[in-house]
Design brief:
alpha+beta; 6-stranded mixed beta sheet; 5-stranded mixed beta sheet; 25 helices; disordered N terminus
Length: about 725
Amino acid sequence: MSAEAADPGAPLRRRSRPRIDLRRLGRVALRGPISRDRLPDAISHVAEAHRAHHPDADLAVLRSAYLLAESSHRGQKRKSGEPFITHPLAVTLILAELGAETTTLTASLLHDTVEDTEVTLDQVEQQFGDEVRYLVDGVTKLEKVDYGAAAEPETFRKMLVATGNDVRVMSIKLADRLHNMRTLGVMRPEKQARIAKVTRDVLIPLAERLGVQALKTELEDLVFAILHPEEYEETRALIAAADREAALDTIADDVRHTLREAGISGEVLIRPRHFVSVHRVRGKRGELRGTDFGRLLVLVGEDADCYAVLGELHTCFTPVISEFKDFIAAPKFNLYQSLHTAVVGPEGAVAEVLIRTHRMHKVAEAGVVALGNPYAHDAASPPTEQSDERADPTRPGWLSRLLDWQESATDSDTFWTTLRDDLAQDREITVFRTDGGTLGLPAGASCVDAAYAQYGDRAHTAIGARVNGRLATLSTVLGDGDTVQVLLAHDAASGPSPDWLDHARTPAARIAITGWLADHPDEAKPGPESAAPAGPGHPGSERPAPAAPDGGAPSAAAPARTRSGPRAAGVVVEDPEASVRLAGCCTPVPPDELTGFVVRGGAVTVHRRACRAVAAMREIGRAPVEARWEDAEGREPEAGCRVTLVAESFGRPHLLADLTEAIATADAAIVSATVEPPSEQRVRHTYTLRLPDPAGLPALMRAMRDVAGVYDVSRAQHPAPAG
């Protein structure tokens, strides 16, 4: 079945099979009983399509399912006036042509019986088994009498939960929606628009994620015709006027010749684009060329042949390198595999080329439907006690995430809105955890999303992350293949910031954060700013308020002050009569290398040689003054030394108290302290400390680094802000 049908209103079918008249089949279905040993005429076309994919299939069960469906729906009419049985027949035909196995087709024939007739699920199970019962139940709608306005979203929730255990549920629903969309013309325009919007927002993204391109592309065209009739008509006229195949015939012949010369066995086909695809290309390129209305498809036998074809094409034609994509080495999250490239043909015409094996092509068209029965390998194993909790081996990561977050979305409106937002994210990345596991996340996900994907509600205590071994903020956007390690605080009482919602892309993260904030309206910690923290003196930085010398909370009213160092005992400069003081910007202590500069009044200010101020003074032509520490011998014991340290940390409750406790334990006294406002969940603390002995500085810095949430402690390297 072609995923790029030119006419969105025509049923998808094999070229060799004649058009099926469902009205005639409906009349055949009403002619009464048939012989027990003959397949009903009304499903002979389904049997033919099924046998094309499954030559050894047992058709007896299909016969029984049809007889039950026909007798149950007898007398019912569709809004078009056709016998109702034509609908399950058409849905089953769609799935049969996609290659669905017998159990799926059986459930498809019966998918409306429990909803619209007197047949019960117990009867279905008794006659056809528990798997058919499960599939029929999965696609059965919830009653509006019981659920009111919430019936539609809750029906989709029920269906998605069932899909989590068996992806065949969604296969039947997609085929059901496709046939309903094909026959939507009998509905009122407003109802057509409502159904088309739900199809666009929910069903089409689900078809894309399950890889069922054949259904997805026709659904797109049908929605396009309903919601954008003028643009649809313009596109239809363009396609009708274009000689699509002629424009690609020459290039296709050249490709066939190239493959024959190289000894590569392959089939070269021309694939017309469907309406929405043509519309998108037109919006991207403006005026369309003949080759824009289709693509070349090269089908080969083995994976290696795909790369051989690619090599020949890039050797014998001029390739458009920007169009090359390798979805074989890195398949899409919806099972899709293919090589994409583009080559320049005669007169500069550019033709897009898809290269894949026959098996890849089947999966590209039918997606999960092509996988058959995911439980076939378990047929010989005894049934488990919890058969309703089966883990589908084909379940993709996005579906697992959806099933996780939907449990937290107890409100139907929240579920419906979040589902649409989630499905709108149509790319997925894989990131690696440091323990060797992986996380599947939507493109654009941040460390916030990774935290909740890995830890659930424990992620409320996240304080930062390491991405590819480097410290990063929780707002950091992750790329495909990144390695992420989420850092959690020891304080289990801490919670997320409201600003985390700006960086959360997954519904699980957003629902968890919103829930915590609703439960703790007075405990939300201040959110991150949009830029990384700027140090004092950095352009655009705000002057931080100093903390109390005893380590208490900073005072918002008190301006920041620069405390200059004391007169420097133990420092020798060239002029023994000069007044000497240690610079407050870098607070040197033994055994730092020193240099000094004469300042106003003749005093010498001594800096560490690594201080940034030294380079600045040299740039403006200031002459340095030699300075060194006085020898310890013969020197009076000092009352201690002063040093300024900068602690970089992730914000968390009680951090300031823990840091001041570590400083006090090291016998250091706090002379002054400043705490800058949190930025990107980072906090910068600047402490000017008095130590009884300079030798204790390394131990003090280690003690401060050991405080939870602190990732770096360094000596001050910048001028202190002016008072």
